[in-house]
Amino acid sequence: MSRVTLSRYLIEQTRSHNTPADLRFLIEVVARACKAISHQVSKGALGGVLGSMETENVQGEVQKKLDVISNEILLEANEWGGHLAGMASEEMDNAYQIPGRYPKGAYLLVFDPLDGSSNIDVNVSVGTIFSVLRCPDRKGDEGDLGEDAFLQPGTEQVAAGYAIYGPQTMLMLTLGNGVKGFTLDRELGSFVLTHDNIKVPETTQEFAINMSNQRHWEEPVKRYVGELLAGEEGPLKKNYNMRWIAAMVADVHRILTRGGLFMYPRDGREPEKPGKLRLMYEANPMSFIIEQAGGASTNGEQRIMDIQPTSLHQRVAVYLGSKEEVERVTSYHKK
Ligand code: F6P
């Protein structure tokens, strides 16, 4: 049987689900950029790409060299094709304008070019997360694209995905009708469909959270994690295992593969911030993928994809993965 490459899958989607040709082209270009990032990441110390820059991003985080390289790769790959009206990235304060010499298109691309980049120097998995939105009608306004065009709830996403650069490079993608997983075949140079029908099991005995922040958590989280840790002797009457890779892509990838619950609650370290993770280019795309695989995703109070964003780099608390546990921890917040 012939192998189904990403290109072939996208063409089939055009036939079966009317996926527009320009969206197909956009996904192909993002996938090509992810191959280039994968190549850079894999060079490690040999490519002189490890370590930090002397700069900080808009979040005040020190930028790794590979954060900046990955951002450049995504911008350069996507700016000329005529499928985008603008881009936004974790690594840039403001919306990126498509240079005037190139045609503009119907979509907006939002990304975290290299998620979990503190893992790079220790050779642990990192990834690229992306979300695609439609650009609202700007009614003849040819001026610069403002941040407001991007401020759409996650339910408006037309596609989302991530590439994970681990022992294998994989691309996980949703166009709103399920989740497909593609593995990079380095000999062919193509992403090949290897995971056809990805489903997050409804129940789980595994959770992921940075336990070192326990003393800063709010009461419902302390109670819930306390019950997980109590195991068979506690009210939940089963033992739970814990994993924390500290790269959202890698933790979410494990959950897509075998189930689990991922948590990054808001906490008392910076009480004015509603969490650590970013809504537009981390939580929303991952929530879309998880929901499309049958899982759930909330901020403890509401479905993440229903949140109306108010700024590009807005933060949010995240509970996502196997439905039963997401519902349980969300219900503790509501009590
Ligand atoms: O983007 C933020 C991020 O690197 C996520 O990928 C990851 O889940 C989290 O931060 C790790 O946080 P911490 O440093 O608290 O373990």
From TrEMBL:
Record key words, sorted: Carbohydrate metabolism, Cytoplasm, Hydrolase, Magnesium, Metal-binding
Stretch forming the signal peptide: none
Source taxon at top rank: Bacteria
Residues reported in the UniProt entry to bind Mg(2+) 2: 112, 115, 282
EC number(s) per entry: 3.1.3.11
Domain (Fructose-1-6-bisphosphatase class I N-terminal) ranges: 5-195
Binding site for Mg(2+) 1: 90, 112, 114
Domain Fructose-1-6-bisphosphatase class 1 C-terminal: 200-333
Main localization (coarse): cytoplasm
Binding locations of substrate: 115-118, 210, 276
Cross-referenced Gene3D superfamilies: 3.40.190.80, Fructose-1,6-Bisphosphatase, subunit A, domain 1
Functional pathway: Carbohydrate biosynthesis
Compartmental location: Cytoplasm
Quaternary assembly: Homotetramer.
Family in the record: Belongs to the FBPase class 1 family.
PANTHER family: FRUCTOSE-1,6-BISPHOSPHATASE-RELATED, SEDOHEPTULOSE-1,7-BISPHOSPHATASE, CHLOROPLASTIC
Protein name: Fructose-1,6-bisphosphatase class 1
Species whose genome carries this gene: Pseudomonas segetis
